[in-house]
Amino acid sequence: MAGKKMSLFQEMKKTFMLHAIAAHFSNGLIPVAILYLLLTLPGGDPYFEHTVEHLIIISLLAIPVSFVSGLYEWKTKYNAAKGPVFIKKIRLSIVLFVLAALTVFIRFSMPDVMYQQGMMHWLYIVMLFAMLPIVTLLGHYGGKLTAAARQAAGRRK
């Protein structure tokens, strides 16, 4: 029994993909944050708005893990190839991090930003919504890389 557990652990260790986990984590939380933002807008429910804040903070913490692990995989799996998909993913990741950091900064510096009617209120909302197409594109390009790798592996067999 212990031998099976060890081999299962070894198999998990061999197939563990930090980048995929970190990327899916932040890319999954941001659309949920947008959903809660949409639930906040009509009535200004503070519970929904606090959920947006928490989800963006967690995403902000996960983005650097995804970025660094992505760079590591790019260098080890793809020999740091300068292909357009890689460059797009790197640039989009940086933009995503900047947007997330700015939204968290705005939210911390102006805790009542969602209950104001000024420019910062709309800037905050626009920046949150701007993250949605970015994570969508990051996922799309990641899917293209994964599909290409699977095709290449299939041709080698």
Describe the protein:
- This protein has helices spanning 2-15, 18-43, 46-77, 84-109, 119-156.
- The protein has 157 residues and is mostly helical.
- α2 (18-43) runs antiparallel to α5 (119-156), α3 (46-77) packs antiparallel against α4 and α4 (84-109) runs antiparallel to α5 (119-156).
- The radius of gyration is 19 Å and the shape is elongated.
Task: Give the averaged pLDDT, no decimals.
Answer: 88
Structural class of the secondary elements? Answer: mainly alpha
First-residue to last-residue Cα separation: 33 Å
* Approximate strand percentage: under 5%
Biggest sheet descriptor: none
Give the gist of this structure.
The chain is mainly α and 157 residues long. It is 87% helix and 0% strand.
